[in-house]
Amino acid sequence: MALAIGAAFVARPALGIETPGVGIDYLEGLGRPGALPDGMAFIPPSRIDLAYSHVIYINAALSGPGAQKMWIIERAPSGTASGWKLALHDPELWGDATPEYSWPVSTGRYYQGDNRSGPTPLGVFNVDDRAYRHVRGWGAPGMYNSIFIDLHYSGGRISGVAMHGTTQSKYSLLGRPDSHGCIRMEQPNADAIWSMFHGDGAPGEGSPLWSASVPRYFTSEPEQNWNVRWNYTRDGSFHFDEAGERLTKPGYSALFVIFRDDL
Asked: Is residue 127 within 8 Å of residue 257, measured between CB atoms?
């Protein structure tokens, strides 16, 4: 079986299916007018702000060739055609084939009787910079190496949405919505993400992806009411102060872009 890359096909031994190309060019194409539903918050790789060195794209679609997939991309060396390359991919999934995306995931769905379950929030989000929002190992049942999106809901409640490894019993469900809202993946892939962010160190300023200044998608001052933030945007638009300066904060030079292409 094979995966389309342009007109060619390459082997994809672990999945055993044929799927149209869903590489970085696919992500770029989703930024063209009319490619996504009106109002969908999405930034293609070519328009990612220079403050960010890495982007984590997640397609929460229920169907289609790009559904329930994750792409972790990083800026490529100068002169590379797309300007970006895959930073991580699952070697067992791709074997000797040229990888187009990182690996399959499970995003959220509703569970009867659980009023906090539901589809994964869509939009553009910072990686949460607060150390307690990076939890190594099994910090909660079913959540391994959790890294959370930076979001508080309008009532002030902090989002519980993270990307994390899941139990092996859930591996067969990857590629379809099954979580309570988080982004699930296999544990070795969660290990790879953790290493990319933290190496052998602790979360925070020692991270290889730490930056002294990244745009922030909320207006409250990070130093005030540290555990409560408010007035978020999810469409990738920036906030500015009275002098017209963009609001920033220290944080990770990685960005979440969570979208659907099937609505």
From this structure: no
